[in-house]
Amino acid sequence: MEKVNHKYGAEQIQVLEGLEAVRKRPGMYIGSTSIRGLHHCVYEIVDNGVDEALAGYCTEINVIIEPGNIISVEDNGRGIPVEIHPKTGISTAETVYTVLHAGGKFGGDSGYKVSGGLHGVGASVVNALSTWTEVTIKRDGSLYQMKFEKGKTTQKLEKIGEAEGTGTKVRFLADNTIFESLEYEYEVLEKRFREIAFLTKGLKITIEDKREETPKKSEFCFEGGLISFVEYLNKNKEKLHKSPIYVEKNGETPVEIAIQYTTSYSENIYTFVNNINTIEGGTHLEGFKRALTKVFNDYARSHNILKEKDPNLQGEDIREGITAVVSVKVKEPQFEGQTKTKLGNSEVTGIVQSMVNESLSTFLEENPSVAKAILEKCISASRAREAARKARELARKKSSLETSTLPGKLADCSSKNPDECEVYIVEGDSAGGSAKQGRDRKFQAILPLWGKMLNVEKARADKIYGNDKLNPVILAVGAGIGRDFDITKIRYGKVIIMADADVDGAHIRTLLLTFFFRYMRPLIENGNVYLAQPPLYKLSKKGMEDKYCYTDEDLERAYKELEEKGISRDQLGLQRYKGLGEMNPEQLWETTMDPEKRTLIKVTMEDAIKSDEIFTLLMGDEVEPRRDFIQANAKYVKNLDI
Hints:
This protein is flat. By secondary structure, the protein is of the alpha+beta class. Strand 7 (204-209) and strand 8 (216-220) form a beta hairpin. It has helices at residues 20-24, 27-30, 35-54, 92-98, 122-128, 186-199, 226-233, 283-302, 315-319, 347-366, 368-401, 429-438, 471-477, 503-519, 521-525, 552-564, 585-593, 608-619, 623-633; strands spanning 60-66, 70-75, 130-139, 142-149, 152-162, 167-174, 204-209, 216-220, 245-249, 255-261, 268-273, 276-277, 322-328, 422-427, 444-449, 494-498, 529-532, 537-541, 544-549, 573-576, 600-602. It has 3 domains: 20-220, Histidine kinase-like ATPase, C-terminal domain (Heat Shock Protein 90, 2-Layer Sandwich), CATH 3.30.565.10; 226-385, Ribosomal Protein S5, domain 2 (2-Layer Sandwich); 402-534 and 602-636, Rossmann fold (3-Layer(aba) Sandwich).
């Protein structure tokens, strides 16, 4: 390898002082400088108030998005200490906001038994990444204030008056030279604060958005804690038992769990450590699952629900239709990965397992009708699992006997490299024909589908294998489904749903997305699923190149641009595309399939809880919530094809 002729001595080694390192490499501290990182800054300041609540000193946190995207967070905790810090020689409050790893969250004699956030770096990191920060503290009957710019102190902590009560108020303006956008999404923040309120029983959190003429405001306080959380998650589902099962254990590692079974076939378990959503689970989830399987099998055996010759129920049988929230508070949490999405403390497995074994066993003995209802569902799930296994084996056997394991209607691409290959799942044979003719055969495959497919939200896995509408999709993707799904075996890096821009097309997209979400979830998590965006309109005029518009807003912009060039509306021909089949192969390629010109929407799973809620609402058995949703949102519909 050729050597680079650069000096490498002491003068080349950079020493970043204070918070310069944070500004130099913000992604190391907040994950990214995208909108997600921007929101993360708000969470970090709010988490400081939540830590006060967990310690028993804070009952209210108020968050305001002020005009100009200024954030204000005020809590009624104890207020940050103001005395001079013995090590830094400056006030403790200034130390917290200017020194990394300075906070009340370290060591055995720290200010908090448990805490969330970035373990003491939160306040200083937010300060470093803000154009300015202003901190006001109420403590010991006095009102104090200090100010910063880009992490550097511009006003030392000083007493500015008297004050009743205690607490801390932080106002900051994120630095627009660091973040891609300063536009906070109210709904994203609202969702997180609702979640925190569920997890911190009795804590009142308000969020207010004052950027628009008509302010938005939400207030959350749940005395029911996790019970309220599970009830919220199941609000659109049919329940097997009226009230959630709640078990808890206090002590060195407090554990709280709420469980409720529904008639659905999906499993929804959400885990938290010190209010941090551990989306990848970890040792607390492992302990919960082990105990759940043991407790229900032991109960079924002891009450002769499972006979001697019957095999044990498997974990997946017992978890079918479950909605559960598992929350643990760990003094020294160890997280796997910088994103803190998986708990690694091995001792937590045993703590959770022991607690669930004891508490859930007692509950089932005291509530035999609930135990019976759940076990009937578990046994039904076990039978369906066995039927699914036989159907899966039959499907595999049938595939191995055929000369090709690919569906007959699939027009495959010549490349076999998944990283460059993409498959278009196209609604209808007509559009499929145009797509086959217009595609680039090297890397684009076409799979036409016809008719409405199975709604998997209302079906078990045994109904999916061999289904004539879903089987071609399963075979084309090539990675299996459900627990057999293997993301490394996918045949296409992009799975693109291309449906008409009408009600039927929207329905097909929703059915396919429901299927991917329930049975190929890693495909969405890995960012492999996309929605094609065919045009809604074509503007044409003799001697002018056709202009395609993808939204009503696009159409208005096009009209205005052409009017500026002296072309009036009445000179233009307007075509409204009702379906993909109306476009010839060249048009379909040019507008919807050409990587240089097309628009694809990547389907992401930022929030599994919200995704599950939407799929249940739109595709589940409960009609009333769906009707309410349609009535509430009908006013936003712009184009309805009848």
